[in-house]
Amino acid sequence: MTAPVLVSCAGATHTGLRRTLNEDAHLAASPVFLVADGMGGHDAGERASAAVIAEFAGLVGKESLGLEEVRRALADARTAVEELVTQGTSRAGTTLSGVVVASVDGIGYWLAVNIGDSRTYRFADGELEQITVDHSVIQELLEDGQITPEAAMSDPRRNIITRAIGAGSTTDADYWLFPAELGDRMMICSDGLTSEVSEQRIAEILGTEPSPQRAAQLLTAEAVDAGGRDNVTVVIVDAVSVATHPGSIVHSDEIDEDTRPREAVNGEVR
């Protein structure tokens, strides 16, 4: 049996210029493509992000995954991070964003998952589309019309998130299910990329560099060259073979229950 989506994928990461530890972790192995951005100080964030990725690594090698499998892995990941808290790393937490290959009646789909302010994008037909919605104070201010996108880039609250795995948060992730198309290029990244490199520049690199590995490395390097104020991680996933049909994005509200409202996460600033 052939997987519903065959991919070419790669990842790159960098500590950045101002951090001594890289608290990001990532997974790029079919059918799971994820980025986790840890927080908590000292090595708490590094351990939290690594623990979450380790739980999802057990799904590697399957042809596709369903929503319940992803949710079970997320629940196990949350338990793993909570165990870090009992060991004394009380502020351990991490974001999580990415996609897994899914199947609906044999048709190839992407199932996106997000909690926190790491992001998942789709680049297709020359257009860059942000699939996930940040769980952050700035995002809520943008949605309420209290701040402009331009002002958001320099607002001192831009790193305060409202959901996480750990760090006192218990709110579920958001999920989106949408058909995969031949030529889709999915990009998952920590906010160390998007806080330094514009979406226009990201689209230029994704559109001109055919190699997933080279594209991930170029994007990471640009973020570092632009200031490298945070850890930077990028995962690129190209759909090279898809059992597909046209369709529109379906948000998690239409898959299952609404996962809002959002909650504060101890005012965590990363």
Helices and strands in order:
Layout: E1 5-14, E2 24-29, E3 32-39, H1 44-57, H2 67-86, E4 93-94, E5 96-104, E6 107-115, E7 119-124, E8 127-130, H3 137-143, H4 149-152, E9 165-166, E10 174-179, E11 185-189, H5 191-194, H6 199-208, H7 212-225, E12 232-242, E13 250-251
Antiparallel strand pairs: 1-12, 2-3, 3-4, 3-5, 4-9, 5-6, 6-10, 7-8, 7-11, 10-13, 11-12
Helix pairs in contact: 1-2
Question: Could you explain how this protein is built, in words?
Answer:
The protein is globular, with a radius of gyration of 17 Å. The model is unreliable at 256-270 (pLDDT under 50). Strands 2, 3, 4, 5, 6, 9, 10 and 13 form an eight-stranded antiparallel sheet that branches. A five-stranded antiparallel sheet has the order 1-12-11-7-8. The chain has helices at 44-57, 67-86, 137-143, 149-152, 191-194, 199-208, 212-225, and strands at 5-14, 24-29, 32-39, 93-94, 96-104, 107-115, 119-124, 127-130, 165-166, 174-179, 185-189, 232-242, 250-251. Helix 1 runs antiparallel to helix 2 (67-86). It has one domain (5-254): Phosphatase 2c, domain 1 (4-Layer Sandwich). 49% of the residues are buried. 27% of the residues lie in helices and 30% in strands. With 270 residues, it is an alpha+beta fold. It contains seven helices and 13 strands.
